[in-house]
Amino acid sequence: MLINYLMVALGAAFGVLARFSLSNWIKRRWSHDFPLPTFIINVSGSLALGLITGLGIGVHASLLLGTGFMGAYTTFSTFTMESVSLNRRKKKRVFYSYLISSYVLGIAAVFLGTSLGAATRSLLGM
């Protein structure tokens, strides 16, 4: 259906703008080797996607927020490029801390988000 494509496209447009804005804002304040902008975006995106999933929202809202917005907001490709770059520059400690913390906190954020979403849904009687 055309509406599904429109929901994804609209969500993606706002998601990429949110990622670009937040990433630039963090970069102006952070000058260390650890890729904090991508880390914050991916962990917060994991939490938000977990929340969206846990809330069990409708199909169109899920396409808009989950597939569109969160798909464009989070970025696995940037995460992997930054990881490879850290490894090539021999920043081993930062490389491993980035890999481990991104995966562990990302997965924990999804668990937390789904739990919060399900609890909210239950409280609201959804």
Summarize the structure.
This protein is an all-alpha fold and 126 residues long. It is built from 5 helices and no strands. The relative contact order is 0.19.
Description:
The chain crosses the membrane at residues 47-73, 94-119. Keywords: Cell membrane, Ion channel, Ion transport, Membrane, Metal-binding, Sodium, Transmembrane, Transmembrane helix, Transport. It comes from Sporolactobacillus inulinus CASD. The protein is mostly helical and 126 residues long. It has one domain (2-124). Helices cover 85% and strands 0% of the residues. It is built from five helices and no strands. The chain has helices at 2-27, 36-55, 59-73, 76-88, 92-124. α2 packs antiparallel against α3 and α4 runs antiparallel to α5 (92-124). The chain is globular and about 50 Å long. The two termini are 26 Å apart. The mean pLDDT is 96.
Summarize this structure as a short list of keywords or feature phrases:
5 helices, cell membrane, globular, 126 residues, mainly alpha
How many beta-strand runs? 0
Order of helices and strands: HHHHH
Largest sheet: none
Q: CA-to-CA gap between the ends?
A: 26 Å
- Catalogue the unreliable spans: none
Strand content: under 5%
Percent helix range: over 70%
Count of helical stretches: 5
The outline comes out as globular
Based on CA atoms alone, the radius of gyration comes out at 16 Å
Instruction: Please give the domain count.
Output: 1
Nearest-integer average pLDDT: 96
Structural classification: mainly alpha
Quaternary status = single chain
Subcellular location: Cell membrane
Keywords: Cell membrane, Ion channel, Ion transport, Membrane, Metal-binding, Sodium, Transmembrane, Transmembrane helix, Transport
Protein name: Fluoride-specific ion channel FluC
Membrane topology: Multi-pass membrane protein
